[in-house]
Specification:
The protein is of the alpha+beta class. The chain has 2 domains: 2-120 and 266-275, Diaminopimelate Epimerase, Chain A, domain 1 (Roll), CATH 3.10.310; 128-260, Diaminopimelate Epimerase, Chain A, domain 1, CATH 3.10.310. 17% of the residues lie in helices and 43% in strands. The protein is built from 4 helices and 18 strands. It has helices at residues 27-35, 73-85, 173-184, 222-234, and strands at residues 2-8, 11-17, 45-50, 57-63, 68-69, 93-98, 101-110, 113-120, 140-146, 151-158, 162-167, 194-202, 205-212, 216-218, 241-246, 249-255, 262-267, 269-275. It has an 18-stranded mixed β-sheet that branches. The longest helix has 13 residues, at 73-85. It is globular. The termini are close together.
């Protein structure tokens, strides 16, 4: 099986071009094996680039543990780069389906290859049953979440997948890795949740670390950065234009007041291609 490894701000995935390759059927075995950073290629997940009747392509995303995910902001930017750079859709604006929605992506091209991509991430979802969560509020802003040994103040929303945002004084690996799994699997989130730990730097900039459901800590999370932008505005901490500093690089976010859509802009990089042996 031919594959291509790509990343957006360090959020790396293995991509399979299902325009030319048969769509793999053994996802629950393939994704953990191919994503393993010691015995496989190493990645935050597996993404299939599939033909679509309603868009230029469809993105199907799977976490490291093989579970499906509705959306990935960094992943979809890389899908757009792949489609353009490999001649599958040679247009500066693309439509890509993911998680039951069709997203519009604007490509920044230099020297015949895509360097950056802006994604219309759509409107944030605040209804608890659609996130889903059993936390109270609409929107759910700065509410307490009780863990075994501490209480967090959190904001929860969906950007096509569920997010839980909490602001902290300092970010550390110990904090993310100890609290991330507890929040991800908390009973208030019946389908688990992505967890964003955020350090406010100013009203236009934050540091963010993310614990992704089914994958653990990743170096960037596009939907998470989008959720952080929205959460910052709702809680009065940050403005609608926000620079999010992640372990793997920076993303630019804007929550547009005119149409309620979130726009995310960031890099897309192809690392290498190869062949995964059939098992």
């Amino acid at each position: 099986m031919r594959f291509t490894k790509m990343h957006g701000a360090g959020n790396d995935y293995i991509y399979v071009d299902c325009f030319t390759e048969p769509e793999p059927t053994n996802i629950t075995e393939l994704s953990p094996a191919i994503c393993d950073r010691h015995f496989g290629i190493g990645a935050d997940g597996l993404i299939l680039i599939c033909p679509s009747k309603q868009a230029d392509a469809e993105m199907r995303m799977y976490n490291v543990d093989g579970s499906p995910s509705e959306m990935c902001g960094n992943g979809i930017r890389c899908v757009a780069k792949y489609l353009y750079d490999h001649g599958l859709a040679r247009k500066n604006q693309l439509q890509i389906a993911s998680g039951g929605k069709v997203l519009t992506l604007d490509l920044s091209v230099r020297g015949g290859t895509v360097e950056q991509v802006s994604v219309d991430m759509g409107e944030p979802i605040f209804a608890a049953e659609q996130i889903p969560t059993t936390l109270s509020g609409n929107p759910i802003v700065d509410v307490p979440l009780t863990l075994p040994d501490r209480e967090l103040i959190v904001t929860s929303l969906s950007m096509g997948n569920p997010h839980c945002v909490t602001y902290v004084d300092e970010l550390s690996k110990e904090l993310v890795h100890s609290l991330g799994p507890q929040v991800e699997q908390h009973s208030h989130f019946p389908r688990r949740v992505n967890v964003e730990f955020v350090q406010r730097l100013s009203d236009t900039a934050v540091n963010q670390r993310t614990w992704e459901r089914g994958s653990g800590e990743t170096w960037a999370c596009g939907t998470g950065a989008s959720a952080v932008c929205v959460a910052g505005v709702l809680s009065g901490r940050t403005q609608r234009n926000l620079t999010v500093h992640l372990l793997g690089g920076d993303l630019q976010l804007q929550w547009n007041e005119s149409d309620n859509h979130v726009t995310m802009t960031g890099p897309a990089v192809e690392v290498f291609s190869g062949e995964w042996p059939e098992t």
